[in-house]
């Protein structure tokens, strides 16, 4: 068991972490908003945690709080990410579809260049030697695991709440939702902020886990990777991001024996999954269940 | 800033701006026909640069499968540039067949086209890395033949430097823009492309084979992407297989700045961003990479349809 955890513990935590980032994209998508800003908030959260854990100014806090500094880091990362999301979201969410995606790409890139040049973020080198919360890597499941359970519970409740229904109404038809008395801007900003807070907290948890933090943490490639997790897992099911995140993040590890060719295969998987699993894995499972559950002789419901 | 410095920055700006323009046009053509963004365009840019390099120089480095190989034949630079762009155009066609057509024929969510085109980009870039490694390739100074590398102009006791590469880049880009303008506005193919862009269903009723014109569009787009990649590569060197990613995003910024799907807009957007980057003061050079995105963000907030785009009417 110990050996297994030594070998695969890091991978397991990574899968949970990547799935969480997939959820940070899933919430805006629930309200029909394609936001690719998650890596930006993830990087921001990580920098906040890394700075609070290493900079001299916060030393008295660290001494006074002991391990409690870590939850405080998550909290502050979440609050700042949420606040920034509100600031960016209110003007940006007037944009629809691809325009919003492009605006969020621009946001991520601007943030990346700023972090690459500021002194406090360690410039191109980044921040090193971030103190660890646990001794072994796999123990971080104790922080990421509960966050994932919390996120799942939250999406389960959200799905059945007034807010969740408003999100879905906006996704299906924004004008109709507006006419029904739903304020689209308010709910779109809310969905965007929920995603940003989640990404920020995951970033803050990841900084001690990864030990070092730099500007490569928040890139355009990551945005598309998270989008792939959600779409290939299934963007209409609360289990989709978990399935997609876990499977796609594990893929490079599974393909490791192929060495240099593994990213080629990874790319092909993205292409073929988009073509053959248009509803994602969760959608495909749902379809199989509908087919097998159908009793012989029963009439197919018109769709 | 005095007049001489201004002139120098201006010349640098329009040279790089003209490449941005032809690169962004590759996105614009596809967007105007299909209404989607081809995220594999950055990979085609990389591909074109490597193709032109291998045909004109032909000496590979120390990494990858082709390490130390020497291609037995070599073309002159103009021919390599042309062939590189043509092969990139063919790659564009393959991308459409592999990543876009299957999704279109199934009526899939347009978001999936982002993922599948990025998948193709990942495949292309990693095949390149597999073959030639991730090192930096630079074109040798004598690749254009017997021309001196730069021209100096003495203006009121100061020197304005114009690199030969800059002249070549500007001239080639302008030539391409002129040819493309002619193709789109004055030929049957161009008219048909415009018809498909306006309304694909009506165009197909009028006897235009829409799928074929989509293939033409992807060929043109790949041609422009490969050409832009080669021109940037010969000016600044090829900084590894991923160098197209940054330019890919910058091209998106150019396209949106000009207006999604607007051809004159892409040209104007390229010039604006090229000039804006050239006029960034030296002490803020580190922030130069963010200029295009700052423009993109600002224009989306103030004028989402871009400088020359048509504003979209919300249909009920």
Describe the protein's architecture and organization.
- The complex is a heterodimer of chains A (303) and B (316).
- Chain A is mostly helical and 303 residues long.
- Chain A is 72% helix and 0% strand.
- Chain A contains 13 helices and no strands.
- Chain A has helices at residues 2-30, 38-54, 59-65, 69-92, 97-117, 141-159, 162-172, 174-179, 184-210, 220-233, 240-254, 262-276, 280-293.
- In chain A, 47% of the residues are buried.
- The mean pLDDT of chain A is 86.
- In chain B, 68% of the residues lie in helices and 5% in strands.
- In chain B, helix 1 packs parallel to helix 5 and helix 1 packs antiparallel against helix 10.
- Chain B has one domain (3-302): ABC transporter involved in vitamin B12 uptake, BtuC, CATH 1.10.3470.
- In chain B, the strands form two sheets. Chain B has a two-stranded antiparallel ribbon.
- The mean pLDDT of chain B is 88.
- Chain B has 316 residues and is mainly alpha-helical.
- Chain B has helices at 3-34, 41-56, 77-105, 110-132, 164-186, 188-198, 200-205, 210-236, 243-258, 263-278, 288-302; strands at 136-137, 150-155, 158-163, 238-239.
How is the topology of this model organized?
The complex is a heterodimer of chains A (about 300) and B (about 325).
Chain A: H1 2-30, H2 38-54, H3 59-65, H4 69-92, H5 97-117, H6 141-159, H7 162-172, H8 174-179, H9 184-210, H10 220-233, H11 240-254, H12 262-276, H13 280-293
Chain B: H1 3-34, H2 41-56, H3 77-105, H4 110-132, E1 136-137, E2 150-155, E3 158-163, H5 164-186, H6 188-198, H7 200-205, H8 210-236, E4 238-239, H9 243-258, H10 263-278, H11 288-302
Antiparallel strand pairs in B: 1-4, 2-3
Helix pairs in contact in B: 1-5, 1-8, 1-9, 1-10, 2-3, 2-4, 2-8, 2-9, 3-4, 3-8, 5-6, 5-8, 6-8, 9-10, 9-11
